[in-house]
């Protein structure tokens, strides 16, 4: 059994264990409910990834769902029915109700965005039922892989709303076809691993969850062995590139590397190649 990392044992809905040197494994841990989310869970997700982001003992992260049935079935509809947006204060007028809902949605968005803002690369392993919030969360990850049994859907229109936690903003930038994005978002239809691979939503498909986790671990260990200055800078600059023009990104890269190139990691990496030795990089 994997050992929980000291300092991460206080979370109720996430298991954070060591998967190798400088590699953390985060599991959504509500398997009896298909890892479906309610408010306390997304608040914890933000806390977990904010902590991992600045942890010098972590250089790469694997994110998966506990159990064999689901990465996550999305929102726990029963729990959601007991609070906003389905339950609001009837004494408030429309404008004040809207203000409360706007704040609620903004906080929810921020919690999921914590995965994207985490300084460390995140490899998301999807399997089984992966609906709604599964797409929001995985779009925030840096790499997505899945098992061949994964059943995906952007499910929100089936519960009477437009997806509002990040899928509509990020999915068009993740995959190769805007037509396909509208197809799955407007219809809420299911799609499988082969289709997800064909459009570039995932980069690998494996026979089972175990095989996908093994592939993620190998990838995470490889990343964790690199310079953390270089890896974290690469993630930052690629995300900036996605959201800005080439000219803006070149300028930002120049500013970023004017500081990063002063790292000892450059010398260590170059010397290791010449000396044919495995480089060892200081914590960041």
UniProtKB/TrEMBL annotation:
- Pfam families assigned: ECH_1
Molecular-function annotations in GO: delta(3,5)-delta(2,4)-dienoyl-CoA isomerase activity
Q: In which pathway does it act?
A: Lipid metabolism; fatty acid beta-oxidation
Query: InterPro entries recorded for this chain?
Result: ClpP/crotonase-like_dom_sf (IPR029045), Ech1-like (IPR045002), Enoyl-CoA_hydra/iso (IPR001753), Enoyl-CoA_hydra_C (IPR014748)
GO process annotations (BP) = fatty acid metabolic process
Arranged from A to Z, the UniProt key words for this protein are:
Acetylation, Fatty acid metabolism, Isomerase, Lipid metabolism, Peroxisome
Keyword set includes Lipid metabolism: yes
> Could you state one GO cellular component term attached to this entry?
mitochondrion
Q: Where in the cell is it found?
A: Peroxisome
| Family membership noted in the UniProt record | Belongs to the enoyl-CoA hydratase/isomerase family.
- Record-given protein name: ClpP/crotonase-like domain-containing protein
């Amino acid at each position: 059994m994997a050992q929980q990392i000291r300092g991460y044992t206080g979370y109720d809905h996430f298991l954070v264990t060591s998967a190798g040197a400088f590699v953390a494994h985060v599991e959504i841990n509500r398997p009896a409910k298909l890892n479906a989310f309610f408010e306390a869970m997304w608040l914890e997700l933000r806390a977990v990834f904010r902590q991992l982001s600045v942890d010098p003992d972590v250089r790469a992260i694997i994110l998966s769902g506990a159990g064999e049935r689901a990465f996550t079935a999305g929102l726990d509809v029963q729990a959601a029915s007991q609070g906003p947006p389905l339950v609001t204060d009837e004494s408030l007028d429309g404008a004040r109700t809207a203000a409360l809902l706007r704040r609620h949605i903004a906080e929810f968005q921020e919690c999921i965005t914590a995965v994207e803002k985490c300084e460390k690369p995140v490899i998301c392993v999807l399997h089984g039922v992966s609906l709604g919030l599964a797409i929001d969360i995985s779009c925030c990850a840096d790499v997505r892989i899945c098992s061949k049994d994964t059943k995906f859907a952007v499910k929100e229109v089936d519960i009477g709303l437009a997806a509002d936690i990040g899928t509509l903003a990020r999915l068009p930038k993740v995959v190769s076809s805007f037509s396909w994005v509208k197809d799955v978002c407007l219809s809420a239809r299911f799609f499988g691993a082969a289709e997800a691979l064909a459009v570039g939503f995932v980069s690998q498909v494996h026979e089972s969850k175990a095989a996908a986790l093994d592939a993620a671990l190998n990838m995470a260990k490889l990343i964790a062995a690199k310079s953390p200055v270089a890896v974290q800078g690469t993630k930052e600059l690629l995300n900036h590139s996605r959201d800005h023009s080439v000219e803006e990104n070149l300028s930002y890269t120049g500013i970023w590397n004017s500081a990063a190139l002063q790292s000892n990691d450059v010398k260590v990496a170059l010397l290791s190649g010449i000396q044919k030795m495995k480089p060892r990089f200081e914590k960041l």
